[in-house]
Amino acid sequence: MTSSDDLAPAFPTVDGADFATADSFDVVNPATGEILGAAPAIRAEDLDHVFGSAADAFRTWSRNDDARRRHLRAAADALDADQDRLSRLLTLEQGKPLHDSVIELQASSAWLRYYADLGWPDEVLRDDSEGYEAVRRRPIGVVAAITPWNFPILLAVWKIAPALRAGNTVVVKPSPYTPLTTLAVGAVLRKALPPGVLNVVSGPDPLGAAMVAHPVPRKISFTGSTATGMRVAAAAGEDLKRTTLELGGNDPAIVLADADVDAIARDLFWGAFGNNGQICLAVKRVYAHENIHDRLVEALASIARDTKVDDGLVPGAELGPINNAPQFDRVSDLVADALGRGARAACGGAALDRPGYFYAPTILDNLDDGVRVVDEEQFGPVLPIVAFRDERDAVERANRSNYGLTASVWSGDPDHAYAIAERVDGGQVSVNTHGGGVRMHLPFGGHKWSGIGVENGPWGLLGFTELQVVTGPARGNPR
Ligand code: NAD
User: Is the residue at 415 inside a domain?
Assistant: First the structure.
């Protein structure tokens, strides 16, 4: 199902042009398990040139805000113009249904336009005959942006758009599982951005570590696992580089006794299974009141059984494969462990018998906290449902986690649910929906081990700036 067009040779973008590399690595199509193509591997020694280009571009880019707005709008237009080709490529390497890839591309250009339009005035605290005091925001310099494989383009744009708008220049490195679309986006955006402003490199994991260790970038914006995020924070700390870390989650949904099971089941299901559960803020465990537990399990299992799982390029596919072999193995292990400890698979519970990394959407019950699939982040198409009797107990269990990304509370009485939501840990808590706060104008970030700092909205942009206080005598005063 691939055409030669989808797989034009991929090059890093450095200083607005192709950057030739001697080495490459394979990228697999998760729907077949076969090699899809090769991606260029940048060596650590090449980073002086890459970051040098970004540092040179910073001198001009940081000075002209009107030009930055224009360029970001042009970047959005360029992405839109190539949406069909980029979406297909994204499905080929990531696995998600083509429709979801199109949405990811559309959201990415919308985010670029949002940041092109956003304003953030200097704050003048005093400007009178006695003196002048202002608080300004300055760009930090060169930003190293490191991204995961679940939303390769959107999560890169969550960094690129605010970082560029604030006046920084960027070097972005996608996950080695999904480098091709990000490299293609780099090539597309050359038409819209001055050379050196946005550089795209690819390589295996050690390239990320080399970027963090390099002396030029002054800010690391990282999205990925908590384990890697901790390594990034430690390495960045050696040089006091600024960091924003968007990390893992084990997001709870608490379903109260008065929830209308039939009305909420579909939203709850897709809150957990969207992108095959490979969303940092997916529902990863459900605490269901014992009065509605059995009905909820059956309603979710029935939706799971009806969900069409297929190659993302097949029309009508609702879920694709898991993205990569280690993640497929992890999901398989977590389910086997739970089943071995007495859990019941109300549906699914095994891989699909076909090539590629396909796993049946799985609903597990008859399990409790202390089982790995409840306590750990599964990041796959598996949802454990744990029964509870007492609401306070449910909140305590929800909060008994090192993670704190998002959460949700579901009830027939939204006011009661809002009161409970206030007691649940997490950077975003929603009522009768999950992930409702993921909007371009709202801050997104995790508490505890789920991250440091936020993305999106003005808050996300301010994370790519340093405060500067300017004081002195009254302005226009000749003294
Ligand atoms: P990962 O941590 O394995 O890799 C993320 C990126 O870091 C990749 O580009 C990788 O090459 C790079 N990397 C690896 N080692 C590095 C090092 N030592 N220094 C610097 N960079 C390094 O994560 P993943 O498996 O790609 O992504 C899945 C994880 O990402 C899940 O835990 C998920 O919850 C999390 N995630 C979080 C958010 C969020 O916004 N909070 C969003 C999406 C995904």
Answer: yes
